Amino acid sequence: MRLIKILFWLCLIFFVISLFVYTIQCIISAWWNILLIIIILLTLWWYKIRRKNQKSVWQGVIVIILSLLLLAWFLIPCIFGHFKDLEEEPETDTEINHHQVLTNDKEDKEKKQQAEKEKEKEKEEQEEREKEQAEREKEQQAEKEQEQQACSNIRGNISSSGTKIYHVPSGQFYDKTEPEETFCTEAEAKSAGYRKSKL
User: What pTM was estimated for this model as a whole?
Assistant: First the structure.
């Protein structure tokens, strides 16, 4: 029982000190609060003088009451705001940590999406390069075949006796010859062991 009383008085003292400190902080935090305190003090001084001279003091009472109401209007939300901030600080830290976690998750997700997009882009570029390379190779092959067809106008024929004879387009047997080999120039044919047809 004694311990409960001690705890009660400690809590009460702590509350009164906190209330006093927060009140001072709220008063000095705004110029109008200081102005209201000055008005109240001046009015009390005026009230004391009027009362001493036995004159009417109801005007001063009204001024004091209005000033106290205005001061309470400004101070009460400020004081309770401090207590509320104390209560909400752990929640605020938790919310900040939660927000940081969400922000980090969002950043990681965005980085992952960006990496996937870059990977897809690289894959598309690689496929495009391979496609262009295949088209170039195809064109080169076609050009090579066309060039071979264009220059392969010398027909090489091997007779039943094994003699190698080549025929030029102006030769008598050129159109009738089924070539075993074709050449672009007579020099190629000769280097392959062919001799020119006499007809």
Answer: 0.29
